[in-house]
Amino acid sequence: MISVLSVSAQRKQINQALDYLKSGKDFDKAEKLMDDLLKDSTNRRKEKIWQILIAAQKAQYEQGNEKLYLNEKYDTAKFFLMAKKLFQTMESFDSLEMQPNKKGRVKIKYREKHALYLDKIRINLYNAGVYFAKKQDYSTAYDYFNAYIECAWQPLFSKLNYAEKDAMIPIAACWTVFCGRSLADADLTLRYHQLAEKDDARLVYVLQYEAETYASIKREDDYLKTLKRGFDLYPTYDYFFRKLMRHYWHLKDNDTAMQLVSTALAVDSTNTVFRFAENRTLLNLGRYDECIETGKRFLEQNDSIAEVYFTIGLAYYNQAVNKELAMNGKNAKERKAIRAEMKKLYEQSLPYLEKYRKMAPEQQNKWITPLYNIYLNLNMGKEFDEIIKIRHERKNTTKTGH
Description:
21 helices; 77% helix; disordered N terminus; 0% strand; mainly alpha; 402 residues
């Protein structure tokens, strides 16, 4: 009795859905009736239910497509959702068709028809991704780009050979890298990164997002490998060079840093970033005369970068400190001569470090100690008292935690 009632109820729902389709309206109601039937696992292999569901979804999609074509008011997001539903439904049905029947036979009846239909509307999966990405709904955008790309591996589209023939797949993959990075999701960012790298026009940005992602998940080897690849391909794109320089400076690997600088300057000897990196690395290497020389040449063409004043001033200052260390074991005459040299170096350092202090007052941790020692050694009482006051205030601030 229960079985008879169940069959009767199914027949009623199917007939009602067909009536909705014939009426030219309420397609969404027809879709829901079939969705409800498919929730029952005993109905999963019933072809008629699937075909009515597909017809209801197609009707909604084509209705929306017509309205958009005629510039009539319609929910664009809903239109894109219907496109995605059609792909999900037909792909699910295709996977059922691939399963052997009771006789152990596989009969694929609808694949070609469904694949040809979906092929015509597939671009709207990509369009939807762009639409939602521009609205900064990166999660939804990612889902659409993912659906577009995954068609390449769906058996339903095997004859269309998207993986080899569709030039849009690498571009869609670039979008997934962008959306994944915007979501701060490393797995999503890297899922299609190799596909994205096939798009030469956007490769520079793909490599940057990859590097950022590797850094965020502490994959140091991959991070460095990506930065080096990025620099090799795009030496004038600042991102890769800057990150590599910071890495080498942090490790105090200044020899490798200088090799990178030399390579960069060979590409563009006028690049401001490269020239400053050279200046800073010469300071790190203790090649103070060269640091001073390159810094002064830099300032002749661009006197607005505070850090160059700092490197020149610190190069003079370090030379003075080295002179002081060299006084040990010297006689009185030699010590007097060294003090004279020290004084001259402190005097040469002074204007550059004071200029740096003026340009970067918030960088107290960098200028306060050298200026303190310079004022002390040059007997600059007023300036020395001021520095003492600043140091005292800094100590108090540190103690109180402000």
